[in-house]
């Protein structure tokens, strides 16, 4: 028989009840009691195994209420039928007369409760309790199912990440453990997840001896500040000389018992590190090539300057002497010859001045007198040509540097003055040259329009780029600061003792 409750109230609780009972009066009594207890009832009554199985298949049901003793069916048989369908539905026995031993037997068989028909006041509290517990069980089952699905999903994702997903725990007593390590661990670290979980100290032993302190410090800092752990270092695979670079990235959180748990990924960055080393090596080779080109260029300038000074200058001097000798022996009445000789002499003088200027531009001989003398001379030349005051302040003592360093600073100064004359629109230039125990500093200030930041990196800034290359080749740097309308400051700082690392040294230091 299928019936539905006619009354409805906002507070009534919907419930689907399967009643196993052979007495229609008892069924109606149960229905009345359930309605009186505030349930919005949908129920079906059966009294045979076949009927119960059909009802179970047509479900779902929230609870089963069964009589214990019926002519063709029993409460224990009804309970067995329910268990055979593997349904987690509360089963409550409501019987007119049941002994304590029978009730205990029914409870052991899986019944959730029993209520005497003569005491139906217990029915509603029993149903309320069992329905709540059933809801809890179903919620737990759903949570466990969701957890299994999430774990399966997480493991699937972790297995496809190009790194090792891990959890690392640091307890308050200092003990360490790996609650979870993904399967990629064996390929990356050369240690199985099980071995790492069994012996957590193995991980630190894999870290290169020179990198362990850095790892410990990074971990300690992350633990104290609860900040993300981001550490790079080398590991050496067990039983092998192979070295890999790894990057640990994880986030810590505090657990209820005070332990810290980091969750993150270990990445294999060996290839990127090798590429970085190769780039560094290439840069070093380019720097060495640039240094060599600069040296060859300066040597060639010096050679050409010497040849101009010695050969061409010497020949011009000889020509002038011979011309003077001829002039002295010309008849006084040969005015055209004397005028021609005078013109030739003036041409020789201009040529001598030109050769001297070219020779100085190629390599000022004043560099042999020291850097301060060369800087002061260049400032005077700039002031003479541009009619712009150029004041030089230097150390009390002269600055004695090796030839390469002296030439580099002088060329940077030359390029600076060239840029000022072309672009600055300045009316004054101040120069400072100071040498300390381990560094020499050249600063040039102008009161011009000020260089814009975008001009420093534009593609055609070869002069500025050349200045920086010269400084970096000697381990120094060039700082350029400009303020619109207030001028520009150029600071050149070069160490007095610089031994650049070679490409092979860089590689050895980086890898081993």
Structure in a nutshell:
The protein contains 16 helices and 16 strands.
Number of helices: 16
Give the strand line-up of the largest sheet. 1-3-2-4-5-6
Reported by name, the CATH topology of the largest domain is Heat Shock Protein 90
**Which parts are unreliable, with pLDDT below 50 for 5 consecutive residues or more?**
1-10, 499-512
Q: Quick one: overall form?
A: rod-shaped
Overall average pLDDT: 82
What's the CATH first level of the largest domain?
Alpha Beta
Intertermini distance: 85 Å
Q: CATH-wise, what's the superfamily of the largest domain?
A: Histidine kinase-like ATPase, C-terminal domain
Please, could you describe this protein's structure?
It is a single chain. The chain is α/β, with parallel strands linked by helices. It folds into 4 domains: 2-140, Rossmann fold, CATH 3.40.50.2300; 161-268, PAS domain (Beta-Lactamase), CATH 3.30.450; 276-363; 367-512, Heat Shock Protein 90 (2-Layer Sandwich). 51% of the residues lie in helices and 22% in strands. The chain has 16 helices and 16 strands. The chain has helices at residues 24-36, 49-58, 75-84, 100-109, 123-160, 185-189, 193-198, 201-206, 212-225, 270-329, 335-362, 371-386, 403-424, 453-456, 462-473, 503-511, and strands spanning 2-4, 13-20, 39-46, 63-66, 91-95, 113-116, 163-170, 176-181, 229-236, 243-254, 260-268, 390-394, 429-435, 439-446, 477-483, 487-495. The protein has a 6-stranded mixed beta sheet, sandwiched between helices. The two termini are 85 Å apart.
């Amino acid at each position: 028989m299928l019936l539905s409750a006619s009354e409805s109230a906002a507070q009534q609780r919907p419930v689907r009840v399967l009643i196993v009972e052979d007495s229609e009066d008892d069924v109606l009594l149960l229905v009345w009691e359930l309605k009186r207890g505030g349930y919005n009832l949908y129920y079906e009554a059966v009294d045979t195994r076949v009927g119960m199985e059909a009802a179970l298949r047509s479900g779902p049901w929230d609870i089963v209420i069964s009589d214990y003793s019926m002519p063709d069916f029993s409460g224990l048989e009804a309970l067995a039928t329910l268990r055979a369908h593997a349904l987690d539905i509360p089963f409550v026995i409501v019987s007119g007369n049941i002994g304590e031993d029978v009730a205990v037997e029914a409870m052991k068989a899986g019944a959730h409760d029993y209520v005497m028909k003569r005491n139906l006041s217990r029915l509603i509290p029993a149903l309320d309790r069992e329905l709540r517990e059933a809801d809890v069980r179903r919620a737990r089952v759903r949570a466990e199912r969701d957890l299994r699905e999430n774990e399966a999903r997480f493991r699937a994702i972790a297995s496809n990440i190009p790194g090792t997903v891990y959890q690392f725990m640091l307890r308050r007593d200092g003990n360490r453990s790996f609650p979870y390590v993904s399967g990629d661990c064996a390929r990356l670290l050369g240690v199985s997840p099980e071995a790492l979980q069994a012996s957590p100290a193995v991980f630190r032993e894999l870290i290169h001896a020179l990198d362990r302190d850095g790892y410990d410090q990074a971990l300690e800092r992350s633990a104290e500040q609860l900040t993300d752990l981001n550490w790079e270092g080398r590991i050496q695979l067990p039983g092998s000389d192979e070295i890999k670079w790894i990057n640990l990235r994880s986030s810590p959180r505090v657990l209820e018992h005070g332990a810290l748990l980091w969750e993150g990924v270990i990445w294999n960055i060996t290839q990127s590190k090798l590429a970085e080393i190769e780039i560094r090596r290439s840069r070093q080779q380019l720097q060495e090539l640039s240094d060599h080109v600069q040296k060859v260029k300066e040597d060639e300038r010096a050679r050409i300057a010497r040849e101009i000074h010695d050969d061409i200058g010497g020949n011009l001097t000889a020509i002038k002497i011979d011309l003077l000798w001829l002039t002295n022996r010309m008849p006084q009445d040969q005015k055209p010859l004397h005028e021609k000789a005078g013109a030739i002499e003036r041409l020789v003088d201009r040529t001598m001045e030109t050769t001297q200027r070219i020779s100085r531009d190629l390599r000022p001989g004043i560099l042999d007198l020291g850097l301060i003398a060369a800087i002061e001379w260049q400032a005077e030349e700039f002031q003479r040509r541009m009619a712009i005051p150029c004041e030089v302040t230097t150390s009390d003592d002269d600055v004695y540097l090796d030839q390469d360093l002296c030439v580099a600073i002088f060329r940077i100064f030359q390029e600076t003055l060239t840029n000022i004359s072309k672009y600055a629109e300045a009316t004054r230039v101040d120069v400072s040259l100071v040498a300390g125990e381990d560094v020499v500093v050249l600063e040039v200030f102008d009161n011009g329009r000020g260089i814009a930041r975008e001009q420093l990196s534009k593609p055609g800034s070869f002069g500025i780029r050349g200045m920086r290359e010269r400084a970096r080749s000697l381990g120094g740097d060039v700082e350029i600061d400009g303020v619109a309308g207030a001028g520009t400051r150029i600071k050149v700082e070069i160490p007095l003792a610089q031994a650049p690392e070679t490409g092979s040294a860089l590689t050895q230091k980086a890898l081993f």
